[in-house]
Amino acid sequence: MKSLFNKEAHEEILARINQLSESSEREWGKMQVGQMLHHCQYPLKISLGRYNPNNKPNLMLKLAGKLFKKSLYNDKLWRKGLPTAKGLKVVDDKNIHEEREVLIGLINDFHQEKDKKEWDPHPVFGTFTPEQWGQMQYKHLDHHLRQFNV
Known about the structure:
By secondary structure, the protein is mainly α. It has helices spanning 7-17, 33-39, 41-47, 59-68, 96-112, 130-147. The chain is globular, with a radius of gyration of 15 Å. The two termini are 18 Å apart.
């Protein structure tokens, strides 16, 4: 699995994001491109300690998280149309240019942490190794860029 900590994967993701435009059509889901770019900021903010979802995960969510955790960083593609976690949904219209700029900044900030050894646990999924954090971030971004055919 590629990792956002890897220079080539980092550059690839940035190039793909820069291919998006207002006219980019989604292949699945409900989000428009600006909403998707905003949504993709949440996992990066969580990993960087800049966002903590308001709602504490209940027992069912924690159990589901344990079942789903390995799929966050393995080599299997996520299926199209997976549901979005409640606290990460974006329903308001978003400006693609503003959202792209913020997302690229977060991606670059995350990439700069490539040598970090200790990471705070994820609020739902718990602890990850640094390698798993990098893979998970790449996989989430790749999933949504494929959603918009880039």
